[in-house]
Specification:
The complex is a heterodimer of chains A (about 425) and B (about 170). With about 425 residues, chain A is of the alpha+beta class. Chain A has one domain (about 45-80, about 135-415): Porin, CATH 2.40.160.20. Chain A is about 20% helix and about 40% strand. In chain A, the strands form 4 sheets. An 8-stranded antiparallel β-barrel of chain A has the order 5-7-8-12-13-15-16-17. The two termini of chain A are about 50 Å apart. Chain B is mostly helical. Chain B has one domain (about 1-155): Butyryl-CoA Dehydrogenase, subunit A, domain 3 (Up-down Bundle). The chains are: A alpha+beta (about 425), B mainly alpha (about 170).
């Protein structure tokens, strides 16, 4: 026996809910036209996006070339200045003057002496010390860095370290990187090798010393929020590596700083370095005058500098089948958290800190993030990535150096 | 073809919310455009028809939100007009007339609660009204419909809804 017998009202509700009707033929015509229009707008939007990113890449490339061009000009100007400028006698300076600019076709004069009308160069440092002069352009910045007080304080950081192959320390493999696409928020994690270099390195290098890019590990944790179907933003925290490898670096002896220890120094695009090395007793001149103001044997240098940064990027995306393609452009700012160099030469292996590195960083970032879905909320991400520093790396280095790094980042993303 | 398969059913849904051929066809058109745009996001959770129906309902509610301040868009028997009579048979015309006799908000509450199966809390959330208002609106809508349907039964004891008059 039925518990409830439907009445006229229930019958009416049943009929209404099941009712069907044939729409006008113009409806499909309108739908078809609207869909065509949407497709056309999508194509136009795609062209706009591609154009915008092409313009961005051109801008970044243009900036790079601009910085590079300025770098060359500045270097040429400084080198010329060193060659032709009148030199001032400064007897108050310590007896050792050394400078090595990596882009110099020949080592810049070590000790310089003037006569009445003519500049004379004492490459081997055999002249009396009271007649020493310096290059005025270099002097202010240079001697501030290498006052005996500063160097003595930094001795603990300059002690020889164990003979570990430097490459093994850097090439540390692990972790997967991450990101994904789906709902509003996406969590992503990257740990990847980055190829780091700077604008000075890509300039022509004429000396025997060669600066080269370096592969270093960096990482990033990020959150992405989609603010519309096509647009979103990304922010996070990252450890950004900057560094370089320098081969055949000429380091100059700047005198004794402790018993049986000499101070060796050199200047690189990232700033000056100095180490306290055991005294080299081997004479470098037929007269038997060793050490002072003379180049040591060639060294290999690894500089590794890390910044803790906060990146912020705008994103636009589209899909090709199930694969999401996302263009990203933005910037990052951060602070210096790690600064270390390693020097390897016949006197031993040394570590220390590159001097004059700015404690902050500002950079521009562009990337293309390709997201391949793996599971419901998980996706594999492949991301060509490029980052260019917008402020000169070292406050004391001349010419200005702008670091950049590039990577093909891999990761996993989780949307929630 | 998707449109051929579902257009009749979906048009019926649209007419329940707005028993006016012009408005219902606009909603149907917008709804189908959304369906074609979002069809790749259909996750196969539930029936495809149910998924499409939700899109149509949401489109109708969106239309309601956009036009709620315009009293002239209120549907009534007088505004159903001649345009649709060429498409609907007499029974369906009668059903639409009964639906159209409800005030707009009553009609939305009736559709959402009695036909779509939403709870009063969900209806209140969708229409941005209080739950008690939803209950009250439904109660009054049901009262109006019962009265009209009973009247028809009273005069047409056997062939209910077979005439074109109330």
């Amino acid at each position: 026996m039925p518990f409830y017998e439907p009445g006229p009202y229930e019958e009416f509700v049943g009929k209404v809910s099941a009712a069907k009707a044939r729409p006008s033929v113009t409806v499909w015509h309108n739908i078809s036209q609207a869909l065509d229009e949407i497709q056309r707008k999508k194509r136009v939007r795609f062209l706009y996006i591609v154009s915008a990113y092409a313009a961005t890449l051109l801008l970044v490339g243009g900036l790079t070339i601009f910085f590079l061009y300025n770098t060359n000009n500045e270097y040429a100007a400084s080198y010329q200045l060193a060659q032709i400028s009148p030199l001032k006698i400064d007897n108050s300076l310590p007896p050792i003057v050394a400078i090595s600019h990596l882009n110099s076709p020949t080592p810049i004069p070590i000790n310089v002496q003037t006569s009445d009308t003519k500049v004379q160069v004492d490459v081997l440092g055999t002249r009396p010390t009271n007649s020493l002069t310096k290059l005025e352009r270099i002097n202010d910045k240079f001697w501030v860095q290498f006052t005996p007080k500063n160097n003595l304080e930094s001795i603990p950081n300059l002690m020889p370290f164990t003979n570990k192959p430097p490459s093994k320390k850097r090439v540390k493999k692990d972790n997967l990187p991450v990101t994904s696409i789906r709902s509003g928020w996406v969590f992503a994690l990257y740990t990847n090798p980055y190829f780091s270099s700077n604008t000075s390195v890509i300039a022509p290098q004429t000396g025997i010393t060669k600066e080269m890019g370096l592969w270093m590990w960096g990482g990033e944790v990020q959150l992405k929020k989609r603010i519309s179907e096509k647009v979103g933003f990304v922010f996070g925290l990252s450890i950004n590596p900057t560094g370089q490898k320098t081969t055949d670096l000429i380091m100059f002896n700047r005198g004794s700083i402790a018993k049986n220890k000499d101070l060796l120094s050199a200047t690189t695009s990232y700033g000056a370095i100095s180490v306290a090395a055991p005294r080299n007793e081997k004479p470098t001149h037929p007269s038997g005058n060793s050490a002072k103001s003379t180049p040591t044997s060639l060294s290999d240098l690894y500089q590794q500098i890390y910044h803790f940064e906060v990146p912020l990027m705008l994103t636009t995306n589209f899909k090709v089948n199930r694969v999401g393609v996302e263009f990203r452009f933005g910037g990052a700012t951060g602070m210096l958290v790690h600064n270390k160099f390693e020097v390897h030469n016949e006197l031993g292996n040394f570590v220390g800190e590159t001097q004059g590195v700015k404690p902050y960083s500002i950079s521009a970032i562009s990337a293309v993030s390709i997201s391949i879905p793996l599971a419901n909320k998980l996706s594999l991400v492949v991301e060509p990535y490029f980052r260019l520093g917008l402020v000169s790396f070292n406050s004391q280095a001349s010419p200005a150096t702008y670091p950049f790094n590039a990577s093909l980042r891999f990761g996993l993303g989780y949307s929630f | 073809m998707l449109y051929e398969m579902y257009s009749h059913t979906m048009y019926g849904v649209c007419l329940r919310y707005y028993p006016n051929a012009h408005i219902a066809q606009d909603i149907l058109q917008d709804g189908f455009i959304r369906v074609f745009e979002k069809v790749k996001t259909y996750r196969r959770e539930g029936s495809f028809e149910g998924w499409m129906r939700r899109i149509m309902v949401n489109t109708a509610l969106e239309y309601h939100r956009k036009t709620r301040n315009y009293a002239d868009l209120e549907i009534s028997i007088d505004t159903i007009g001649d345009a649709q009579t060429q498409y609907f048979d007499a029974d369906y015309q009668l059903l639409l007339n009964i639906i159209a006799s409800l005030p707009q908000q009553y009609r939305l509450v009736f559709n959402l609660y009695a036909i779509e199966g939403y709870s009063h809390a969900e209806v209140a959330s969708l229409l941005k009204i209080s739950e008690s208002t939803s209950k009250s609106n439904y109660s009054r809508a049901r009262g109006i419909l019962r009265e009209k349907v009973s009247l028809i039964y009273k005069f047409e004891k056997h062939a209910i809804l077979r005439t074109g008059t109330i």
